[in-house]
Write a structure and sequence with these properties.
By secondary structure, the protein is of the alpha+beta class. 35% of the residues lie in helices and 14% in strands. The N terminus and C terminus are likely disordered.
Length: 483
């Protein structure tokens, strides 16, 4: 059970406004960035000892940046859409002057001299980096714990995981420390913690946000994405970070339209639904919450049809093969010098990747091709595809990924996330929207998958549905009781 401190006032703090409204209030002088950032730091420190979402809290640097933002506002100088707004970045992502460890002792005490493009764009829009957030070693896991930083806990129930690998970012957002945080998603690492923590998480289409933090610019499963407390805050993140750059040859030569992402409703839309993707065991409570959300879509005047899926556990198994090669290719050299200080699970993954047959690896593309053909046929007739983000609610922190690779008596897959399939067809945007609470008090996420590069379209549908679901936040309650 997590007991939150009773609210001292019913008045909303400026930090609790949508990010663009925070920035507008600072520009108009209704409150200051220093006031907002100070509260952000206070909340971050308040949850750190119990939930462990931060590796670095940038007290002095963030407050100085806030004062500079306030001086600029007082002078009437032009400011970005995120002027004075605090945000957090994942420990996987380099930021100049800040300890960056990738959740690992292998990085020793690395302090980068350059900041990743995604973060620079947020700062160029006026955002203020207030902290770095926890991740499992090399972002390998759906559980956020690492040899370097220990266990990160779910704010709805600290005996449960917030998910991974962007778990620290999810907790920072869910507890109100920041309106949005940066995450990365290679198999669900934005959407899984978003679902488990009751917030919004988006895997954008491949190339919408330049991916610049990997040794290779030719990887095709990796995405930056926002973890946000609302769709509006996710739109603000996308507005600031999307657009081409020569730093990533795969980045798309298209911008992002915030107006398109904010417009439209659900009436007249057509959705395809699969509760289990054809092969998952889905918790009954997860299905109940998803079907209740689908009922709201119906009530809004949309059509939802359940569609058959011919996918099998081979999807997850072959994603895992790809993941092992990813890890061995980018981090395999660490075994020689740091094996004894690394998470045994990541050591096993790297070793498996080092033995992968090249021909078998190439043949993964055949499965990916069939998956795309299946989704293309569905999306030809529907505005979006719906399924749960995860097959379960947040599992106990004592468990691990290996506990969710089983086979049920009827042959279905006992898995945790339903996200990695959409990294195998990465041009499709996939968003996790809070759909409601299960009977155990834990959040459930609805995954909305769109057509190629249709990120604005997915966000507009999510925004329309968000207003109908009215998912509770932790801040709406004086206590959160979970079992």
């Amino acid at each position: 059970m997590l007991t939150l401190q009773p609210k001292k006032s019913t008045a909303m703090h400026p930090l609790d406004l949508p990010s663009v409204e925070i920035a507008r209030g600072i520009r108009e002088g209704r409150f200051t960035s220093e006031e907002v950032v100070s509260e952000s730091i206070r909340r971050a420190n308040a949850v750190s000892s119990t939930l462990n979402p931060f590796t670095v809290i940038r007290d002095d640097q963030a407050l100085e940046a806030a004062r500079m933002a306030d001086r600029a506002a007082a002078r009437g100088e032009a400011a970005g859409a995120l002027h004075g707004v605090p945000f957090a970045a994942k420990d996987l992502t380099p930021t100049a002057g800040d300890l960056t460890t990738l959740g690992s002792w292998t990085k020793e005490n690395w302090v980068p001299t350059e900041t990743a493009l995604c973060i620079r764009r947020l700062q160029d829009a006026g955002g203020i980096l207030m902290g770095k957030t926890t991740t499992p070693e090399f972002a390998y896991s759906s559980f956020t714990r690492s040899p370097r930083w220990g266990v990160t806990r779910n704010p709805w129930n600290p005996e449960r995981t917030p998910g991974g690998s962007s778990g620290g970012s999810a907790v920072a957002v869910a507890t109100g420390a920041v309106p949005f945080a940066e995450g990365t998603d290679m198999g669900g690492s934005v959407r899984i913690p978003a679902a488990f923590s009751g917030i919004v998480g988006l895997k954008p289409s491949l190339g919408r946000i330049p991916m610049t933090i990997l040794p290779s610019v030719f990887d095709n499963i990796s995405h930056f994405g926002p973890l946000a407390r609302s769709v509006a805050d996710a739109i603000a993140f996308m507005t600031a970070t999307c657009g081409p750059s020569d730093e990533d040859i795969s980045s798309l030569p298209i911008g992002f339209s915030a107006d398109a992402a904010r417009s439209g409703g659900l009436e007249g839309r057509r959705f395809a639904l699969s509760i289990d993707l054809g092969y998952y065991v889905v918790e009954p409570e997860v299905e109940r919450v998803i079907r209740a959300a689908v009922a709201e879509i119906h009530n809004a005047g949309a059509t939802v049809d359940e569609v058959p899926m011919g996918w099998t556990r081979a999807v997850n198994d072959e994603w895992f093969d790809l993941w092992c090669v990813f890890m061995s290719g980018f981090f395999g050299d660490t075994l020689r010098s740091h094996r004894d200080r690394m998470d045994p699970a990541i050591v096993s993954i790297i070793e498996r990747g080092l033995t992968m047959n090249a021909t078998a690896y190439k043949r993964i593309e055949l499965l990916r091709t069939r998956m795309w053909q299946d989704m293309a046929a569905i999306l030809k007739n529907y505005d979006a595809f719906l399924c749960p983000t995860c097959a379960i609610t947040a599992p106990p922190i004592t468990q691990c990924d290996d506990d969710y690779v089983g086979t049920a008596e009827d042959g279905r897959f006992i898995g945790l996330d339903m996200t990695c399939p959409f990294n195998l067809i990465p041009q499709l945007p996939a968003l996790s929207l809070p759909a409601g609470l299960a009977d155990n008090g834990l959040p459930v996420g609805l995954q909305i998958v769109g057509s190629r590069f249709a990120d604005e379209h997915v966000l507009s549908m999510a925004a329309a549905l968000e207003s109908r679901l009215r998912m509770p936040r932790l801040s709406d309650r004086s206590t959160a009781d979970s079992s």
